[in-house]
């Protein structure tokens, strides 16, 4: 997605890190670059607004459910693998191993 105009921060970079922006999980200097981009780029601003609305809806509908501790630790472990650049198995690492009878 792009408006076709050149920007200091490329549209693909903004969209790749949109959830980090929404969750305030990026340095303030990067947040400022994104805010500037949204002022200049209406397609990215529209995408931001849509994702923000979806995030609020999910929080309202599902925000009261507790995440099982083991699931949280498995997901966090997978995130750490991705961040460290290690290969991540394509199978669902959060699923319990199949018993011999299921194979």
Note down, in words, how this protein is organized:
The chain is mainly α. Helix content is 59%, strand content 0%. It contains 5 helices and no strands. The chain has helices at residues 11-16, 18-22, 28-40, 42-62, 69-84. α3 crosses α4. The protein is globular and about 45 Å long. The relative contact order is 0.10. Residues 96-100 have low confidence and may be disordered. It holds the Pfam family zf-HC2. Residues 11-44 form the Putative zinc-finger domain.
Descriptive labels:
5 helices; 103 residues; mainly alpha
Shape: globular
- Helix segment tally: 5
Mean pLDDT, nearest integer?
A: 81
How many E-type strands?
0
Distance between the termini: 43 Å
The largest sheet is: none
Low-confidence blocks of residues:
96-100
Q: What is the oligomeric state here?
A: single chain
Helix content: 55-70%
> What is the succession of H and E elements?
HHHHH
**Strand proportion:** under 5%
By helix and strand content, what is the structural category? mainly alpha
Radius of gyration, taken over Cα atoms and rounded to an integer in Å: 18 Å
């Amino acid at each position: 997605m792009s408006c076709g105009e050149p920007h200091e921060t490329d549209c693909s970079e903004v969209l790749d890190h949109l959830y980090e922006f929404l969750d305030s999980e990026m340095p303030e200097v990067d947040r400022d670059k994104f805010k500037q981009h949204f002022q200049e780029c209406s397609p990215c601003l529209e995408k931001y607004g849509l994702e923000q609305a979806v995030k609020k809806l999910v929080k309202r509908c599902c925000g009261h459910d507790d995440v099982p501790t083991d699931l949280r630790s498995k997901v966090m472990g997978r995130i750490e693998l991705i961040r460290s650049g290690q290969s991540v198995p394509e199978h669902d690492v959060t699923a319990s191993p199949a018993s011999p009878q299921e194979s």
